[in-house]
Amino acid sequence: MAVAPGWLAAQACQRVLKRAFSLHKAHSIKDMENTFQLVKNIIPPLTSKKHKGQAGRIGIVGGCQEYTGAPYFAAISALKVGADLSHVFCTREAAPVIKSYSPELIVHPVLTLPLPARKPLSISTPSLSDSPDAVHEVEKWLPRLHALVVGPGLGREDALLKNVEPGAHGRAVKGSPYSVQDGLWLIAQQPTLIQGYRKAVLTPNHVEFLRLLEAVLTDPVDSSDRRGAGLRLSQALGNVTVVQKGEQDVISDGEQVLECNLQGSNRRCGGQGDLLSGFLGVMVQWALHAGPEKMNGFSPPLVAAFGACSLTRQCSHQAFQKYGRSTTTSDMIPEIGPAFSRLFET
After folding, report:
1. Strand 85-90's sheet: what is its strand order?
2. How far is CA 10 from the centre of its chain?
3. 344 neighbors 36 (Cβ within 8 angstroms)
4. Using one digit for the tens of pLDDT, what is the confidence trace for 289-323?
5. pLDDT tens-digit map of 240-287
6. Helix or strand holding residue 178 (H, E)
7. Which residues pair with 242 in a beta bridge?
8. DSSP 3-state percent helix, strand, coil across the chain (nearest 5)
C-alpha cells in the first residue's frame, strides 16, 4: 500500500508530541501542538533574498584555559541552528584551542591581559589582572550582535569575572543586544546585574537554581514545587525568564509557566547545557524580531526557551538512540539539523 510522505511526516511529528509532555491537567497534546506552532512562527524562512548576518549574529562570552569545550558547544550550536555568524570572546590562552575546533567560529582573545614580559614561558600561569581593554573590546562589537550568551566555560576566577562583569553583564545587558545569560555564578553573587532585564534568560541546573533562590528570595521557598519556585524567582528578578533544567525543564517569565517533558536521554554528559545556551541565543533573537502578534500572549523569551529546550532534548534523544551509554555532547551536534527539521519543519 502506498503511503504519502506528508502523512508519514505528520505521524512522526505526532509521535514526538505524544512523548513530549505528560498528560496531566496543565498540558494536553493540543496545548503542546499550539506551543510548538508558536516556535514555528518565529523561525525565519530560508530565502535567497537575505544577506549574511540577518538570521543571527551571536556573541559567546566565555572560555578560559581550563574550559574550552563549553564556548565551542554554545557557538557551534548557534551556527547549526541557523545563525549566520558566531563570535567567541575568550581568554588569550583559550583562543587557539577554540579556533582549532572549528574554522567557522570568529574568536576574540580579549578577556585577559598579555603575559608579563618577565614571564615569557609561564604559559600555565596567565595573568588575569583587570584589563580596561577587555571591556572595550567586547563593547565595540555589541552594535553588530543580536544576542549574547554569557558564561560558558568562564570559570570562577575573580579577576576574569571582573573583566566580564561591566562589559558583558552591565552595560551590554542594558543595551541593545538581546542577552541570554548563562554566567550564573556571577549572577548569584550580584543579582542586580540582571534585575528587570526582560530580554534575558537564565538556564540554571538544580544546584544553580537553589543558589539563585537563596541569593534572591528572603522568604523560604518549597523548591520541590518547581513551577511555583520558578515563578517566584522570575518575579523576584523582575520577570527575567528562568529555565530550570532537569528531568522536566520548567520555564517561567514570572507570569506564565511552561514545562518541556520531551524525552531526551539517560546520559547526563557535560556540555548539553551549552548547546541549549547556543540555541537560546538564536531563538531569543528570532522571537523578539518576530513580534508580539506571533506570540499568542506569551513573551518572546518564553517561546524561545521552550523551543531551545525541546531541540536540546530531541538532539540528545536521537544521539542516545545511536550511541547509548557512550553518547557525548559531540554526538549531539550532527543531530541538530535532523532534530530541528523533525520538530519545527514538519
Report:
1. 106-109, 85-90, 57-61, 147-150, 178-181, 201-202, 241-244, 249-252, 257-260
2. 28
3. yes
4. 998 889 999 999 999 999 999 999 999 999 999 99
5. 999 999 999 999 999 999 999 999 999 989 999 999 999 999 999 999
6. strand 178-181
7. 202, 252
8. 50, 10, 40
